[in-house]
Specification:
Elements: E1 17-18, E2 24-25, H1 54-66, E3 72-73, E4 77-86, E5 89-96, H2 97-101, E6 108-114, H3 116-119, H4 124-135, E7 146-152, E8 155-160, E9 165-167, H5 168-175, H6 180-198, E10 212-215, E11 220-222, H7 227-230, H8 255-258, H9 265-281, H10 291-297, H11 309-318, H12 330-337, H13 340-343, H14 348-391, H15 395-408, H16 413-447, H17 451-464, H18 469-499, H19 503-515, H20 520-560, H21 564-577, H22 582-617, H23 621-634, H24 639-657
Antiparallel strand pairs: 1-2, 3-4, 4-5, 5-6, 6-8, 7-8, 9-10, 10-11
Helix pairs in contact: 6-9, 14-15, 14-16, 15-16, 16-17, 17-18, 18-19, 18-20, 19-20, 20-21, 21-22, 22-23, 22-24, 23-24
Protein name: Serine/threonine protein kinase
Organism: Sediminihaliea albiluteola
GO molecular function: ATP binding; protein serine/threonine kinase activity
Length: about 650
C-alpha cells in the first residue's frame, strides 16, 4: 500500500529525512487527511442569521479570526480546517471574505501555506510566483484550478479551487488493487491532464498519488501542478533546486531527477507508470525505491495480473529506469496502453475490418475522426452543463464551464456569448444584491441613530448608482438628522458649562452650534440662562466690592488704635471674599511687622526696668530714674516704668529729710 508524505513545515525541528521506504517523512507523522483543495465532508453552511448581510458577516468573521493569530491572511482569507499535509506545506479549507461579502453560496477555497524550509529560501518566492502564473493558465477538467499566489508578511500561500472527494493515496489504502476498468479510466484522465500541461511546456515533477484527487463525481484531477517544477534548478534563471527543500518524492523520482538534471516530460511519464502499477497491483513497482536505487539494485517489477502482452510491454517500457527506453510522450504511452480499439470495445471488430480494408493510412484517418468526435462530445457536454447552470441562474457554474470550454474550443461562439451573458448577469445581480442590502442596512442605521453608518452605506449605493432616488432622499435625511444630533450634543455641553459657571466654555459651545447650523430658537434657552447668570454675577461682584471696602476701613481704624487683633480679623474677612486682594495682603504684612516690633520693645523695656530695680536696691535713685525714663522713651506712658520713677523719687525725698546739719 502506498504511503503518503507527512511533513509538518510549521516547526523548524521537523526537518525531512529519508525513511526505510525512501519517502520523505518526519517523526510522529500526522494521520493524513485529504490532499490539497479537498473538503471530504462537503462545503460548510454559511454562518450568521438569515437577515445578516454579506458585509456584516464578513466583518464578523474577520474580527473573530484576528483574535486568533495566524488565522486571517491578507485581511481576506479565514483559515478553518486543515485538509492535508504534504512535502511543501499545509493545506487549509479557507473562507474567502470577498465571496462572503457578495453572499456567494459557496465562499470556500483551498489554501496552501508553504512550509518553513521552503518559504525561507531566498529565491523560492520569485520562482514560485512565476510558475504560479503559468499554473493559472491550466484550465483543464483534469487539473485543479489555481486562483492566485501571494504572501502575507512572511507567510507564502497559494489559493485554489476546493474539491469534494478523496485523494488517490487514500483510495489506494482502502481499495487497492483497483479493477482494471477503474485503473484504466483513471489512467486515461491522468494522461489527458498531463498531456495538456506538457503541450504548454509544463512538467509536474512531483507526480504521485498524494497529488491526484478523485472527485465525488468520478473526475480525476491533478494537484500541485508546477510547484515542484518551479523549484527545479533549470526551471528558471534562479539557482534553486527542489531537492534543497526536500520536496522531491524519491518513490516516484527518475534517475535524472535524483541527479538533479533538467526536468523532462519523461519524469512525469515514469511517475504516471508507477501510479498505474500501484492502481493495478496495490504495490509499488520498485518497493518504494527511487529509480536510481532500483537501477543500482537491478530490481525488475513483476507483471500485474490481467494485462496482456502488449499492455505489459507498454507499462514496463514506461517503468524503465533508463530514460531512452521510456515512451517519448504521454500520448505515445496512452496509445500503447489503450489503443483506440481497446478504448471502444464495441468497435473492435469494425476496427479490424477497417484496418484490413483500408490499410494503415485509412485507419489513421479514422483515429483522427474518432478523436474529433470525442472532443466534440466533451465540448457539447460542457456547453449543455453551462446552459443548464445559466437557466437556474447559477452564473458562477456557467462561467466555470464556459472558461473550460474557452480552452477546449477557443472559437466556440456560443460559449463566448454564454460567458459574456453570465458575467454580465452575475455582475448585475451582484450590484442589485449589494444595493438592496446597503439600503436595508442604511434604514437600520437611521432607526438606531447611527448616522455615520447610514452615510457610508448610502454613499456606497450612490457610487454604484449615482441617480438612485431613494438613496439620495435617505442620505439627505441622514445628514439633517446628523446635524440636529450634533447641535443637541453641543448644546448639552453648553448646559454643563453653565452648571460649572464656565462662561468661556459656554460661548465657545454656542459658536460651535451656530457653525453646525443651529438657529436662534435652538440657542435661546442657553443664551437666556447665560445672560441671567452674568447679571447675577455682576450684582454679586458689586456687593462684594462694597463689603471689602467697609472691612478695609474698619481694619485701618483698629490698626491706628493699636488693636492688631481687631485689624487682623477684619483683613481675614476681606481675604475670604477676595483671596487676592492686594490691600488686605499688604496690611496683614504690616501688622505682622508691627507685632514683631512691639515684642522687641517689650523685651527692651523689661531689661531697663530690671536695671532700674537693681539701682533702687543700691539706693542709687538717679540711676533708677534714668533707666525708667529710657523705658518710657520706648513705650510712652508705660505704667511699671512710671511707677518705678515715682518710687525712686519718694525714696530720694525721704533720704533728704533724714539728713541733719551738724
Amino acid at each position: 500500500m502506498g504511503q503518503r508524505d507527512n511533513i509538518k513545515p510549521s516547526s523548524a525541528a521537523d526537518q525531512p529525512s529519508l525513511n526505510n521506504d525512501d519517502e520523505l517523512t518526519v517523526t510522529d507523522p500526522v494521520e493524513p487527511p485529504s490532499e490539497a483543495g479537498v473538503d471530504p465532508a462537503g462545503y460548510s453552511e454559511k454562518g450568521g442569521g438569515a437577515t445578516q448581510t454579506g458585509f456584516d458577516h464578513a466583518r464578523e468573521l474577520a474580527e473573530k479570526a484576528k483574535s486568533q493569530k495566524g488565522r486571517l491572511l491578507k485581511q481576506r482569507f479565514v483559515l478553518e480546517d486543515v485538509l492535508g499535509e504534504g512535502g511543501m506545506g499545509l493545506v487549509y479549507k479557507a473562507r474567502d471574505l470577498r465571496k462572503v461579502e457578495a453572499e456567494d453560496r459557496n465562499p470556500y477555497i483551498a489554501l496552501k501555506v508553504l512550509g518553513q524550509q521552503f518559504k525561507n529560501h531566498p529565491q523560492a518566492f520569485v520562482s514560485l510566483q512565476q510558475e504560479a502564473v503559468k499554473s493559472q493558465k491550466l484550465a483543464h477538467p483534469n487539473i485543479v484550478t489555481v486562483h492566485d499566489f501571494d504572501r502575507d508578511d512572511d507567510t507564502i500561500f497559494m489559493t485554489m479551487e476546493l474539491l469534494k472527494g478523496d485523494a488517490l493515496d487514500a483510495l489506494l489504502k482502502l481499495e487497492a488493487p483497483f479493477s482494471k476498468e477503474v485503473a484504466m479510466r483513471y489512467f486515461r484522465d491522468l494522461c489527458a491532464g498531463l498531456e495538456y500541461a506538457h503541450k504548454r511546456d509544463l512538467v509536474h515533477s512531483d507526480f504521485k498519488p498524494g497529488n491526484i484527487f478523485v472527485t465525488t463525481g468520478g473526475t480525476v484531477k491533478i494537484l500541485d501542478f508546477g510547484i515542484a517544477r518551479a523549484a527545479n534548478k533549470n526551471a528558471l534563471s534562479h539557482d534553486f533546486d527542489v531537492a534543497d527543500l526536500g520536496a522531491l518524492t524519491p518513490a516516484y523520482a527518475t534517475v535524472e531527477m535524483v541527479n538533479r538534471e533538467a526536468p523532462s516530460f519523461s519524469d512525469d511519464i515514469y511517475a504516471l507508470a508507477c501510479v498505474l502499477y500501484l492502481m493495478l497491483t496495490g504495490e509499488h513497482p520498485y518497493q518504494r525505491k527511487s529509480a536510481y536505487d532500483a537501477q543500482q539494485a537491478k530490481l525488475k517489477p513483476a507483471r500485474p495480473e490481467g494485462l496482456n502482452n502488449r499492455e505489459w510491454q507498454a507499462l514496463s517500457a514506461a517503468l524503465s529506469t533508463e530514460k531512452s527506453k521510456r515512451p517519448a510522450s504521454i500520448a505515445q504511452f496512452r496509445e500503447s496502453m489503450m489503443p483506440p480499439a481497446s478504448r471502444r470495445g464495441a468497435l473492435k471488430s469494425v476496427a479490424a475490418v477497417v484496418i484490413l480494408a483500408l490499410g494503415a493510412a485509412a485507419w489513421l484517418g479514422y483515429q483522427q475522426y474518432e478523436a474529433q468526435q470525442a472532443e466534440a462530445a466533451a465540448v457539447n457536454a460542457r456547453l449543455k452543463a453551462a446552459e443548464d447552470c445559466f437557466f437556474v441562474q447559477d452564473y458562477s457554474c456557467t462561467i466555470e464551464n464556459t472558461l473550460v470550454l474557452k480552452n477546449l474550443a477557443p472559437d466556440n461562439t456560443e460559449a463566448q456569448k454564454l460567458l459574456q451573458l453570465a458575467q454580465n448577469a452575475q455582475a448585475k445581480l451582484a450590484r442589485e444584491t449589494m444595493v438592496n442590502s446597503r439600503l436595508a442596512e442604511a434604514r437600520e442605521c437611521l432607526s438606531s441613530g447611527d448616522f455615520s453608518c447610514a452615510r457610508v452605506k448610502l454613499q456606497e449605493v450612490l457610487k454604484s448608482q449615482p441617480d438612485h432616488a431613494e438613496a439620495k432622499v435617505l442620505l439627505e435625511q441622514s445628514e439633517q438628522r446628523s446635524a440636529q444630533a450634533r447641535v443637541g450634543t453641543i448644546l448639552a455641553r453648553a448646559e454643563d458649562c453653565l452648571d460649572s459657571a464656565n462662561f468661556s466654555c459656554v460661548q465657545q459651545a454656542l459658536t460651535d452650534a451656530q457653525e453646525q447650523g443651529a438657529v436662534a430658537a435652538d440657542l435661546y434657552p442657553v443664551q437666556r440662562r447665560l445672560d441671567n447668570l452674568l447679571a447675577e454675577r455682576e450684582q454679586a461682584s458689586k456687593e462684594q466690592g462694597a463689603a471689602i471696602a467697609r472691612l478695609l476701613s474698619e481694619s485701618e481704624r483698629c490698626l491706628q488704635q493699636g488693636d492688631h487683633n481687631c485689624s487682623e480679623a477684619k483683613l481675614s474677612e476681606v481675604l475670604e471674599l477676595d483671596a487676592l486682594n492686594t490691600r488686605a495682603i499688604e496690611m496683614k504684612q504690616s501688622i505682622a511687622t508691627a507685632r514683631q516690633q512691639a515684642q522687641f520693645n517689650q523685651q527692651t523695656v523689661a531689661r531697663f526696668l530690671q536695671e532700674a530695680e537693681r539701682c533702687l536696691e543700691r539706693k542709687d535713685y538717679s540711676c533708677t530714674i534714668a533707666r525708667s525714663e529710657s523705658a518710657l522713651a520706648i513705650i510712652p506712658e508705660h505704667g511699671p516704668a512710671q511707677a518705678m520713677i515715682r518710687k525712686a523719687e519718694a525714696a530720694q525725698n525721704k533720704a533728704k529729710m533724714n539728713i541733719s546739719i551738724q
